[in-house]
Amino acid sequence: MYAIFGSAGNPDAFYEAGYKASVDMPAWLGKQKLTAYEYQCSRGVHIKEETAREIGSQAAKYGIKLSIHAPYFISLATEDEKITANTQNHFIKSLEVARWMGADRIVFHMGGPGKQTRTAAMQRVKHAFSAVLELMEQRGFTGINLCPETMGKQNQLGSLEEVIDICSMSKWVTPTVDFGHLHAVSGGQYITESEFESVFDIIGEKLGAEVAKQLHIHFSRIEFTKGGEKRHWTFADDFGPPHQPLITLCAKRGFTPRVICESAGTQAIDAKAMQELYLSLVNTK
Predict the structure, then answer these.
(1) CB 3.0–4.6 Å: which of 40, 93, 158, 233 could bond 45 by disulfide?
(2) In this model, does residue 283 exceed pLDDT 90?
(3) Is residue 9 within 8 Å of residue 18, measured between CB atoms?
(4) 218 forms bridges with which residues in the sheet?
């Protein structure tokens, strides 16, 4: 088993090649010899069942593993009952689309703490998320992993510790580690092999070695301020974190993550660069 690499959404090169619809992405990724695609529902779940099933069919044909990014509107720490209800609906609609497509992972953001302390906000997150997990069971959506993401801004919930905390609530909840976000929120850390390794090791210790081995990863170069994330960039731009230490570590330790590249427009090109480095390292062992 090997690590797999792919694109968050549709990159510029896809459109420049004359394509317009996401149903064509699996075939296009197949031509690039990439094998992962994260479909973006970040602005809301609007895709029709027929289209979702066609994307899933094409993904199966070209050997593409599918994940979905759930809406940014999810807010698990909210004190507003209407937003809580909407948050549950965003999860259920995302799970329904995942089932249509055959996607096995749904990435989501927990939301912000508002005026609460982080401790109080996380208590509210866990209460609201337990209701989501109950709904998930009741509606038969088990088998699809919900994947809370590490976040890049100081005022967002989603530190590595907070993500691990809610991942301990169910075997159907596993982390998405965004190393660009960790780099931004830590003021420039996560640039050395040992810093990357520390993330895998703590996840392995808290959630199990297999979860760490098959981690869902987001990666991009990123610009940040003292508040954290400002903007995603590309591998051609002079920002961190570097991908080489992460890829070297994965090859060395036998980790086989699904790495979704979130570069600004060059997701496929930069995913391909990571894949080529990874394969060059594992093939020389």
Answers:
(1) 93
(2) no
(3) no
(4) 178, 260
The distance from CA 113 to its chain's CA centroid, rounded to whole angstroms, is: 21
CA angle 124, 130, 135 (to 5 degrees): 130
Side chain identity, residue 141: F
Q: What is the DSSP string of 150-208?
A: P-SBTTSS--HHHHHHHHTT-TTB--EEEHHHHHHHTTS---SHHHHHHHHHHHHHHH-
Rounded CA-CA distance 114/240 in Å is 29
Of the pLDDT bands very low, low, confident and very high (cuts 50, 70, 90), residue 144 is very high
**Residue 62 CB burial class (10 angstroms; 0-12, 13-18, ≥19):** middle
DSSP H helices, 47-146, are 49-62, 81-101, 118-138
Evaluate whether 142 touches 217 at the Cβ level (below 8 Å): no
Is residue 172's pLDDT more than 90? yes
Model pTM score:
0.97
- Find out whether 168 and 129 touch, Cβ atoms under 8 Å: no
SS3 breakdown of the chain: % helix, strand, coil, rounded to 5? 45, 15, 40
> What rounded mean pLDDT belongs to the chain?
97
Q: Tell how strand 228-232 and strand 222-225 pair up.
A: antiparallel
What tokens were used for 20? Answer: 């317009």
The predicted-structure confidence for 173-193, as pLDDT tens digits, reads as follows: 999 999 999 999 999 999 999
Q: How far apart are CA 234 and CA 263, in angstroms?
A: 5
Model confidence pLDDT, tens digit, residues 198-213: 999 999 999 999 999 9
Nearest to 262 by CA among 231, 214, 219, 209: 219
Q: From CA 89, how far away is CA 206, in angstroms rounded?
A: 30
